[in-house]
Specification:
Layout (H helix, E strand, L loop, with lengths): L17 E6 L10 H18 L2 E7 L3 E7 L7 H22 L15 E4 L3 H17 L14 H4 L14
Antiparallel strand pairs: 1-3, 1-4, 2-3
Helix pairs in contact: 1-2
């Protein structure tokens, strides 16, 4: 059926980590620009501080983002977190594109909440952290996770990091 979308059932459980993925519209590489990755990373950190969620791992790729976080339920849920991150980052990036005379896409982020999975325990939690940190390596962008600046992977490895803040398991 054209236009048919599966109904997503979100299960909100206190102190349960969530693995999230959201993408640029049509998986376009809008985040290929280093300053745009920086703007998004800053917005992730600002949203974390403002909304109070735990951020365990994350990575910004040229066309998508992975987050492993724990929302502070019931006060703040995942849709509110994603809205804060996506809305503000798109506004900032599109304003910059407009100022530079770059063609503005009709939509920055792919519609919807993206991929959302409840993480049930330690082994799965650790596997998601590895998956997130290895994403730039699998894509061929760097040789080691610690070499990618738009992730706390260097800090996880005990190195100096551009974005060193992360929270341990809930």
């Amino acid at each position: 059926m054209p236009g048919f979308r599966k109904t997503r059932i979100r299960r909100e459980h206190p102190n349960q980590a969530r693995y999230l993925t959201f993408s640029c519209d049509h998986r376009q590489s809008f985040l290929d620009s280093l300053p745009y990755r920086d703007k998004l990373a800053e917005q992730i950190m600002n949203s974390r501080q403002h909304l109070g969620f735990l951020l365990h791992a994350w990575v910004i790729m040229p066309d998508h983002v992975h987050l492993l976080l724990t929302p502070p339920l019931p006060d703040v849920d995942v849709p509110r977190i994603l809205s804060a991150i996506k809305r503000r980052s798109a506004t900032l990036i599109l304003a910059d594109m407009r100022q530079k005379g770059i063609a503005i896409p009709p939509r920055f982020w792919q519609p919807g909440g993206g991929y959302d999975r409840n993480i049930l325990g330690g082994p799965e939690f650790n596997e998601k952290i590895r998956y997130i940190h290895e994403n730039p390596v699998r894509r061929g962008l760097v040789e080691h996770p610690e070499d990618w600046a738009w992730s706390p992977a260097p800090a996880w490895g005990g190195l100096d990091a551009r974005w060193p803040d992360f929270d341990h398991a809930p």
